Amino acid sequence: MAGIRHCPLLSVRPLRCLVDEKFEVVVQFLLPSQPVTLHALLQSEDGDFWEAFGHYKGDASGSVKVSEDVSLGGSYDGLEPMGLLWSMRPIPGSRKGLRFRNKDVFKPIEVHISVYEGHLTKWFKEKQALASVVAERWYSSPGVQRIDVREKGLKGTLFIPPGPGPFPAVLDLWGGGGGLVEYRSALLASHGYITLTLEYIGLKDASGTPQNVDNDYFEAAFSLLKQHPQVCPDRIAMMGLSFGVSVTLGMAAYSSEINPKCVVCVSGSHIMPVNGSLADVFKEIKKNVKNTRYDEERRIIWRDLLLPIPDDPSKKVEMGLIQCPILLIVGEDDQNWAAAESAEDMKKMMEQAGNSHLLTVLSYPHTGHLIEPPYCPHVRSSNFKLIEAKTTVVVVWGGQMVPHSKAQEDSWQKTLAFLEQHLYTHDTVASKSN
């Protein structure tokens, strides 16, 4: 009926999807050129609230489509279809040094998306939304299994895709922060890979005594995957982040028991004593503790602990020994690890050895250390727990929000393509789950 104005309608599609999938946010039945604010809010498992918002204007028909319309301001601007997620930051008054991480991979991240009249920058709780909707973002797709691994002295978690298999597999190694980090592994399982995430730093035995693991520990983990009845034994990759890169490259080069089909290395280095253990690696790092720097807010910058890149071949992995494809992902503004300098040296070593055709380097300007699956909030610095000292410091990771967020999206898509290229071949029995 002419003259009747409908209430604004806000829709998000899909309402339920994996965290690495895009969604479409649309507002309808506004007035032509009506200014509105789209606001996204979520609560972390630790109880902290994160938010993002963009300023928009309705088109001639009174609609806003985030994938096609530009944000005129807010926590992001321009044409940014997923800006409502990657530009999230803790709400004003939050605790300092926060980093968004999910521990319960079988619980969705609930994102409350609302549209408000006018261009707002604060006081969202005090305003009445024109419309709201809740979108669910998941790390695990339906049917993914989670299994605790506590055998052969290992401490880890195994994620298995739905279906009988057999599947390719990934051994997932995180960095120096220690602990058991599961969300990337759950997401890889959602894409069709049996994935074992392994805890290997700060381990303690039943009596609470610290344990230093050696090569046997990682070989046992690789063997567990290889012998699993649902795993294609000749289709196993290794993926390392930060300190996990040193382990991954060392195992690929020197272990007679570990023969990965390919490796993915994120924000790491090849620097480690050739004949040493993990404990020896930390000893080498501590020798350079004098190279620690601080920014104007007294936050720690560790990138110089590995510099200069040693010429002594006994202090770095012999890259010429690696005979599988390597995907190397580098943030050029990494303030935590000398990833860019290490990548340059690795490339040079492989060119000299004649195996540089196996190396693919993705190097991203203005991108920091924490290159994670896409659309998660970027933090330039955050709290970091020192395991041995039992204290917490603030560490600078680096990166600028927009380029870092775009690097996360691009590198994750290329990581999945790399794994599919080398692990999902014509003779792989299982079909991928999406």
TrEMBL record:
Organism expressing this protein natively: Astyanax mexicanus (Blind cave fish)
Family, per entry: Belongs to the C/M/P thioester hydrolase family.
One GO BP annotation of this record: acyl-CoA metabolic process
GO MF terms, alphabetically ordered: fatty acyl-CoA hydrolase activity
Name this polypeptide is given: Acyl-CoA thioesterase 19
PANTHER family from the UniProt entry: ACYL-COA THIOESTERASE 17-RELATED (PTHR10824:SF36), ACYL-COENZYME A THIOESTERASE-RELATED (PTHR10824)
Domain BAAT/Acyl-CoA thioester hydrolase C-terminal: 214-424
Organism domain of life: Eukaryota
